[in-house]
């Protein structure tokens, strides 16, 4: 019996996560603690994603975070390649 591998997702940008937290689908802001509770993930996971120290989560967590923010999965996440190579999108910051 083979065990099916969990698809992993990389956050497209910690800045995008922060922006989506400032205005969720309801128009209201959500704190990292509120997001963690609503998505059923550890507060440390949300904090690490926001700080950019963690980029990758398994599919169930990615879906739960996106749903808690009221956005589609691929608005916030990029699916990791299954061919053994890891794709991590570049973080970009707008400079004035």
Can you tell me about this structure?
The protein has 96 residues and is mostly helical. Helix content is 43%, strand content 10%. Strands 2-1-3 form a three-stranded antiparallel sheet. The N and C termini lie far apart (55 Å).
Q: What characteristics describe this protein?
A:
single chain, 96 residues, mainly alpha, three-stranded antiparallel β-sheet, 5 helices, globular, disordered C terminus
User: What Rg is obtained from the alpha carbons, in whole angstroms?
Assistant: 14 Å
State the end-to-end CA separation.
Answer: 55 Å
Structural class: mainly alpha
Low-confidence stretches: 92-96
Number of helices: 5
Proportion of residues in β-strands: 5-15%
Residue-averaged pLDDT: 85
The arrangement of helices and strands along the chain is: EHHHEHHE
Q: Would you count the extended β strands for me? A: 3
Share of helical residues: 40-55%
Could you give a short account of the major beta sheet?
3 strands, antiparallel
Short overview:
This protein has 96 residues and is mainly alpha-helical. It is 43% helix and 10% strand.
Which helices and strands, and how do they pair?
Layout: E1 8-11, H1 14-22, H2 32-39, H3 43-51, E2 56-58, H4 59-69, H5 73-76, E3 77-79
Antiparallel strand pairs: 1-2, 1-3
